[in-house]
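Entry type: protein chain
Record version: 2
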Amino acid sequence: MERPTLRQLEALDMIAREGSFRAAARAIGISQVAVSDHIKQLETRLGVSLFDRSRGGKASLSEAGQAALGRARLVIADCDALVATMSEFAVGPGVGAVAAPVRQTTIKSEPKAKAAPKPKADPPVETIKEAAPVDQDRPITIGTHASILTRFQDKLAAFEDAFPNRPVSVDFNCFVADRVAVALSEGAIAMAYFYAMGETRVFPSDYLWSERWALYVANDHRLAAREFVARDDLLSLGLLSFAPANRLRPLVEACFAEAGLGAMPFLVESDDYGLLVERAREGEGVLPLFGSAAARIGATSGLKRLPYVDPIPAIEVRRVVHPSLAEDDEIQALIATLQ
């Protein structure tokens, strides 16, 4: 049997997420005919019908389609993990540790009785109308997170070699949309590569890539041996994640609330990854990770990635450039270098 392609599996996943072939085509950025062709080729290669065909309405997965979707999502997640792992090798050893601004630890013994209301990952701030200009004689300041920077470390050094009169500095506290908006309005940064859940509301930004979630538990956890894990299997468990003051915490809460997992309590809240891994190994809860942290920490001994098949919204990495520098040739050269 000829193997399915990753594009075909992604088409299947997107149809299931968006609810129709047309919506999936719009989300992927290809024609509806192309999406249909991907599914027809996938069905031919698998020898089954993945959808119950009917005129109009929502795309309905067949029983075989449901089984194929679970496997497809595992393949996609493994591919994402492969890319994240190799990106760390590309920047060299010792680079890529996730730097967290706060070292706060709270351990709770009792789960919360009810779910909190769905949080907003990027609180609205005043729309940027006239951002303060950036001094072009000072270094180019990039707002980003250490995990995002791992993808650019060597390229950033190459830019500084090519433009020695335009040094680059990094603001590691500027990696979510609300903080980026403030820094842009104050003229404190020239550009930012930041985390968000979809298109930003208060300033235009460019989508770069998505980072999917991986869920880890102890090797001997009762769910570790499951072939598939679904939403209902997790609702009775607790999360091991960032401290409330960490700027990534609202993204965690928003993603899990949107995925129908908002009732999961935070049992351990800390920016110490060592502590979170230790608690996960002891079977205290689920450790959610994304990006390079998912590849780096998830590869440590004693942890097992759950084959979770229900979708959790991915974290997007987006880019914004200060309006006063949009036509700056060296800024455009930096953007091109960091592609």
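Comment: The longest strand covers residues 315-321.
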